[in-house]
Write a structure and sequence with these properties.
CATH class: Alpha Beta
Strand order of the largest sheet: 1-2-3
Number of helices: 2
Strand content: 25-35%
Helix content: 25-40%
Order of helices and strands: HEEEH
Number of strands: 3
Distance between the termini: 24 Å
Radius of gyration: 12 Å
CATH superfamily: Hypothetical protein
Number of domains: 1
Oligomer: single chain
CATH topology: Metal Transport, Frataxin, Chain A
Shape: globular
Amino acid sequence: MSAGDLHNVRLGDLIELMEGFGFREARTEGSHHVFVHPDVAELVNVQNVRSEAKPYQIRQFLRLVERYNLRLKDDA
């Protein structure tokens, strides 16, 4: 994803990645999943379209990761 290929990304894969960065799902409204992070002021909204995430929503998430200098959580 970070290389720019944002098409054909499964929503489940994106959600797993978001959770790895510390986001948690705050609510679901229809096909929209809203995520929050304790260190991020913005909400992240992702939408399920044929089991795939929308590319612009992936870009928004990646920008937040960069802007807030988020790191993947250690599994240990």
